[in-house]
Amino acid sequence: MTLLSISDVRRRFGDVTALDGVSLDIREGEFFALLGPSGCGKTTLLRILAGFETLDEGAVTLAGDDLTRVPAHQRPINLMFQSYALFPHLTVAGNIAYGLQRERRPKTEIKQRVDEVLERVGLTHAAKRRPQQLSGGQRQRVALARAIVKRPRLLLLDEPLSALDRKVRAEMQLWLKQLQHEVGITFVVVTHDQEEAMSMADRIAVLNQGAVEQVADPVTLYGSPATHFVADFIGANNFFPGTAVAGGLASTEFGSLPARPGAAVPGYPAILAVRPEQVSLSGGPLAGRVLDVSFYGGLSRITVSLSPASSAVSPSSAVPPSPAAPPSLTAPLSSATPPSSTAPLSSATPPSSTAPPPSATPPSSTAPLSPATPPSSTAPLSSATPPSSTAPPSLAASSLLNDKSEMSLSPGGTITVHQHGAPRVAPGDAVELGWAAEDAVLVEP
Amino acid sequence: MRRLGERFTLLGPGLAYLTALMVVPLVLVLSYSIFQRGRFGGLVHEPTGENFARLFDPLYLDVLVTSVKLAGVTTVLALLLGYPTAYAITKLPPKWKTVALIALVLPFWTNFLIRTYAWIVLLSPAGLVNDALTGWGLIDEPLQLLYRRPAIVAGLLYAYLPLMVLPLCAALERMDDELLEAAANLGARPARAFLSVTLPLSLPAVITGCVFVFVPSIGNFVVPELLGGGQTAMVGNLVRDQFLKARDWPFGATLALAVVAMLVVLLMLQAWSARRLQGGRDA
């Protein structure tokens, strides 16, 4: 059942459009996340929901009731501030009781409910302390207790974990999720941190420049991003510009690449997104040379400089990798990344600096997607890349979630590959890269 | 011990100045209070408690009480006028905020005596206020505004109102607006949010402002002299008269000591309450 309905909300501040027609439905009892970079409008939306900000156009309804005309102090919505905004002149118990006192509840009821919520957040012993005497994590729990003691229909959390150090974060993340299940209040978390959103939320709305890019559960968002922005913002990705065709992408520079069609329409420009952990280094349509290998404990991160593909029609690994390798074997990373050529279908001629040796396939054969290569035949998924779900959550995994790569790849560009366990290649090795069609997806440019 | 040395290097000049030119004369003058006066003024170095006994003479006690009353009324009025003023100033756009603050301290650049004389012009029977009131037909006869206690309060209030507004401005400026949003979010109407959040958090500044107004008000002798017409003497006038007219230095010193003692107690109360309200570490 829809609890909160946001329809076509617009808000402008002078020349800046903070919200450009945002529509969202948030269900009862859901843990929902508004995710986006700073300046995407998520804070404005949060402030509109709390009643601190007005909207220019659109409607917000809570359980069918129009919220837009209700003043902030009458809304059944509570907010946990990013700064916590605890009252410094009141004790912990006084802070929590504040909202109940405004409802003119009887003293005995206030005391009972404050005690109850203090126990739930594990701060019974600190009831008489002042906020300044508490640690960051404790303050956050007071802020949360103060918000949930009112039993709101909706709880807004503004960057709930951003002020905490790493260790406390993981603890609070788990605890918040548990708490949400226990109290059954609908949570809406606003965050710029994808890890925070992915680990806690049932559904996530990705916002960009005041508009919703995609609303989906974390697994769908990660596995089937709808747009280039989402594919780039959530986790690490490698991008290939081109044209959507049946069975994948036609790239002017790399030939045909296998992928699920996703939201792309055949014949239109599209971008292929493939996760670093889905790329196999043992056979495939692409060739390259390993530039750098770093080991992160459970994972290895391998950077490969791409060569223009010669093997679109011959996916067999029998092709020796050496002729396709770029001449600049010891080239520094900077020279290996050409600044331009990001536009899809720009030109058929690859940048000259990474021009293949004469023995390579002429460019003309790389353009059209050959019907003779069904996606399944390109490369079997290597056993070296087990499904990512089995990976234990580790420091390495979370830091590699933010492993940003180039917005679009061209010959000479670097593709990022994640391998489980210790690296099995070394810098300078010539490798072939590929992936199964179902592991890559076409997104809107 | 190097840090202690550094501290004294920095404190030294100011400390030496204060010690030599204020503490020493003050202690000297106050020490007169235990001696007797000479027949033609001056001092007879024979210890006596007589001066302290005279403090409780109804004649002088009355002056002390009147002084406390007038300074107290001035302080309360300054708070009632100053708080809304300070609140309004902090809500101004930044440019106008600066203008307002400059306007607030601008009178300090003019001589205090001249500003007080201006009040005589305003309040005299043929002054601006009476002229306006008779002109509008509100009164038939000019009111006797000058040389009454309200005139003294008006003068003191005018002189020291900025001392109330400035600390309040500083405190209200520092106030985190998110706390008011939090109060609203928890169900407090704007008026309730003000009473339960803004006001308690600005209380240390309220106390500071009150002390800043009360202390110079109670010791002032120019305003009661000029606007009080010499009829209502405040303790400042009394002290000056003892030294300069009655030539009774020991008693003047005793009166001064009484005022200083009262103010020290007041400042200690202020420091204690400020620490209690701000720190909250003793909770």
UniProtKB/TrEMBL annotation, chain A:
SUPFAM superfamilies linked to this entry: MOP-like (SSF50331), P-loop containing nucleoside triphosphate hydrolases (SSF52540)
Bias-annotated ranges (Polar residues): 407-417
Annotated region described as Disordered, given as residue ranges: 310-420
PROSITE patterns: ABC_TRANSPORTER_1, ABC_TRANSPORTER_2
Keyword Metal-binding listed: no
Keyword Transport in record: yes
A GO term, aspect molecular function: ATP binding
Pfam families on file: ABC_tran (PF00005), TOBE_2 (PF08402)
Annotated InterPro entries: AAA+_ATPase, ABC_SmlMolc_Importer, ABC_transporter-like_ATP-bd, ABC_transporter-like_CS, Mo/tungstate-bd_C_term_dom, P-loop_NTPase, Transp-assoc_OB_typ2
Domain ABC transporter: 4-234
UniProt keywords, alphabetically: ATP-binding, Nucleotide-binding, Transport
Biased composition (Low complexity): 327-352, 362-401
Official protein name in the record: ABC transporter ATP-binding protein
TrEMBL record, chain B:
Stored PROSITE patterns: ABC_TM1
Principal subcellular localisation of the protein: membrane
Record carries keyword Transport: yes
Family: Belongs to the binding-protein-dependent transport system permease family. CysTW subfamily.
InterPro entries: MetI-like (IPR000515), MetI-like_sf (IPR035906)
PANTHER family per record: INNER MEMBRANE ABC TRANSPORTER PERMEASE PROTEIN YDCU-RELATED (PTHR42929:SF1), INNER MEMBRANE ABC TRANSPORTER PERMEASE PROTEIN YDCU-RELATED-RELATED (PTHR42929)
Top-rank taxon: Bacteria
The name this protein goes by in its record: ABC transporter permease
Origin species: Paractinoplanes lichenicola
Positions of the ABC transmembrane type-1 domain: 64-272
Protein keywords: Cell membrane, Membrane, Transmembrane, Transmembrane helix, Transport
CDD domains: TM_PBP2 (cd06261)
Membrane disposition: Multi-pass membrane protein
TM helices/strands, residue ranges: 15-35, 59-84, 96-114, 151-172, 193-215, 249-269
Claim: Membrane is one of the keywords in the record: yes
Compartment(s): Cell membrane
